[in-house]
Fold:
Amino acid sequence: MDLFDVVRSCARRWYVFIPLLAIVSWISYSTYNAAQTVYYSNAVIGLAAPSSRIDNAVQGIPVPRNGLLDVGGASLIANMTALGLSEPAVIEKVVASGGIPDYNARMFPSPANMQQLPLVMIEATDADEEAVSLTIQLVSAQAEETLRTLQQQAQVPEAQMVRPFVVSPPSTPYGVMPSRARSTISIFVAGAGLTVVATVLLDVLLCRIRRRRETAHGSTSMTGGHSAGTPSTNGQPSGDAEVNEHDRDTSERFRVGDTRPD
Structure:
């Protein structure tokens, strides 16, 4: 079955195809209108290098340093901080203070041809405007504690610790519409495909039933015609009828010949 067969099947069963397609369109339209307005807010946290420095180091005495900065720099610490803000323990603290758990902490996006900036971006999206604003504030407050805990676990001296600072304060939540066009198109395409499949299957089933009925009707007609000795196709007599007619002609001819005088 090719594309033209599918089109012919849908055209023959238009009374099935059109109502199903109308139902799919109504469901897609309802899904598009059911999308609610959500509110979005973000904040950006930066990292400040330690302010203490030793200009003249005494020979033989170890110099206190931040090992995390020596290994990966400020970008490594920022990445670890973003991961730490997504830990379940931090999420529980935010929720316990009235925030929402569906926030996102990640590295600040930068172009691919630029070095990663040591910035942490915190985002929150929800239908409750106040909950979004409160969540951004609570997560921003957890950034300092999370950063301090990470450096303490790495045994960084207190004077060499990196400190967080606010690059961009929590923005005022503003309403945005979720991506409803993609979901609406997906529902419509899937529903239209199922509609075509159902219409084609129904057309194939009905065509098979009709052919079986026509075959059974034709076989019954042919059997009845031969049993009655009647012509079946073009009005010609059957073989038995021709033999009987020949016998009658012969008998009549002999009977007439016997009555003639010698």
